[in-house]
């Protein structure tokens, strides 16, 4: 059986057809995106999903929202706005800056 549903028809489905309609309309409400994550980020997301009993997509979404909601603390030094790093952040040295410059294509 082939059923064609528009987004409008997804909203006007009777209770007996809801399960089928919800499966057919899933992509109308939850867009899918392919992400390429670095290995370490994937491990963090998988561990978070397992701890919280979430799907991987839900875990990634939650982690992104948390990061986006964190305030970026800046201060002015010598007329420039700079990011204030936590005490746990590695020290930024001239050697590290040079190393990062070499990595940029």
Number of helices: 5
H/E series: HHHHEEH
Gross geometry = elongated
| Through-space gap between termini | 53 Å
Count the strands? 2
Strand content bin: 5-15%
Low-confidence regions: 1-9
Biggest β-sheet, characterized? Answer: 2 strands, antiparallel
| Backbone structural class | mainly alpha
> Strands of the largest sheet, in order across it?
1-2
Number of domains: 3
Features:
105 residues; mainly alpha; 3 domains; two-stranded antiparallel sheet; 2 strands; elongated; disordered N terminus
Commentary on this structure:
The protein is mostly helical. It folds into three domains: about 1-30, no CATH class; about 40-70; about 75-105, no CATH class. The chain contains five helices and two strands. It has a two-stranded antiparallel ribbon with strand order 1-2. The longest helix is centred in the middle third of the chain and has 14 residues, at about 40-50. Residues about 1-10 have low confidence and may be disordered.
